[in-house]
Recover the amino acids of this structure.
């Protein structure tokens, strides 16, 4: 007969062990959306996240702008990823009973006659997203601008912080999140999957932003980290009808009279902390641009997990197929993350292919070293 203490020990051991289909590291926008799509598929998962409020997803404005660069070219895959992103955010929002996405056209104040001419030239070629603004003097009460403006629409804002917070609450309700800093030394790769602490899973997917650039399995991927900074300002007299751009972006937030101002790109940086230089330069920019008073409420900074070729990293390690990654969305996370999170989930569950330009199979040679 088994002694009573043996039964209790077995029960305790069974309780301590956890088996899931997938382990996800990081609950930024990529980890949030990947777990959402796996939840829809009825798969079990556990998200490990250390609740770093300085992550790039936490400070992002969530702007979806279909146009990019000084030549006003259309963003990569925008015709595909933007409608998919909108459907995803609306579906998640309905599920969580929150509004996650807002339609806001972008008013681009031309910084020079050359940029105005570039906009007009592109407008004559294709007016899908570019539009002339009928009243060039309408914004004179709010802004100083010398060379007119154009309008980019449709454009959108995603309340990423609300989305991630609401989904995090749902993850706690599902017992599908563990709040701690992932320790790579405790990861064990087995023939049939992985083990981490008391958890076993078929696969582990790293959605941990810039941390993946030092992951021993993925550090050879061509990451190109850059630092971004932003201010949160208050301005009761400023219009919140649009997103505005003149060098920097100025975007209305859901809290009344508050706006996000940013962001810059710093390719050389010493840390991920807000800098006095950005604060000084941005305040000077706002003083010259805005005609209405404002107050700085907050100054934030983070390191973006951008990539050299400006394409995401999606897929599984060529030599360790239990190790996956969903990362490298750069400044386009709002539009790209839903599409590629769904692709990875569909690949996991249904073995659907991953887009060739995003699949890390393109780096098989590098990762096999």
């Amino acid at each position: 007969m088994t002694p009573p203490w043996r039964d209790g020990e077995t029960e305790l051991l069974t309780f301590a062990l956890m088996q899931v289909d997938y382990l996800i590291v990081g609950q930024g926008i990529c980890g949030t959306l990947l777990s959402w799509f796996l939840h829809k598929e009825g798969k079990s998962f556990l998200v490990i996240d250390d609740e770093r409020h300085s992550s790039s997803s936490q400070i992002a404005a969530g702007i979806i702008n279909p146009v990019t660069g000084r030549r006003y070219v259309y963003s990569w895959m925008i015709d595909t990823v933007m409608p998919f992103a909108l459907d995803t955010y609306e579906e998640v929002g309905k599920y969580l009973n929150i509004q996650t996405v807002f339609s806001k056209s972008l008013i681009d104040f031309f910084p020079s006659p050359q940029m105005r001419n570039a906009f007009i030239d592109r407008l004559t070629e294709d007016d899908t997203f570019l539009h002339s603004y009928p009243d060039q003097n309408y914004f004179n009460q709010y802004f100083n601008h010398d060379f007119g403006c154009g309008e980019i629409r449709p454009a959108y804002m995603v309340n990423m912080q609300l989305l991630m917070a609401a989904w995090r609450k749902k993850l706690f309700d599902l017992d599908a999140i563990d709040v701690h800093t992932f320790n790579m030394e405790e990861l064990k790769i087995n023939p049939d999957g992985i083990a981490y602490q008391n958890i076993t899973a078929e696969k582990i997917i790293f959605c941990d932003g810039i941390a993946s650039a030092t992951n021993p399995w993925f550090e050879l991927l061509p990451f190109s980290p850059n630092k971004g900074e932003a201010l949160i300002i208050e301005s009761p007299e400023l219009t919140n009808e649009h997103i505005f751009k003149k060098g920097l972006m100025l975007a209305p937030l859901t809290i009344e009279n508050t706006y996000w101002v940013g962001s810059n790109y710093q390719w050389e940086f010493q840390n991920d902390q807000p800098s006095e230089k950005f604060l000084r330069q941005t305040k000077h920019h706002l003083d010259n641009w805005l005609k209405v008073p404002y107050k700085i409420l907050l100054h934030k900074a983070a390191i973006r997990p951008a990539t050299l070729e400006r394409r995401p990293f999606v897929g599984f390690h060529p030599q360790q197929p239990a190790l996956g990654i969903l990362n490298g969305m750069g400044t386009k996370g709002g539009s790209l993350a839903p599409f590629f999170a769904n692709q990875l989930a569909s690949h996991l569950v249904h073995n659907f292919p991953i887009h060739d330009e995003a699949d890390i199979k393109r780096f098989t040679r590098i990762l096999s070293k």
Remarks:
- The first strand starts at residue 18 and ends at 25.
- The two ends are 55 Å apart (CA to CA).
- DSSP finds nine helices and 21 strands in the chain.
- The longest helix spans residues 78-96.
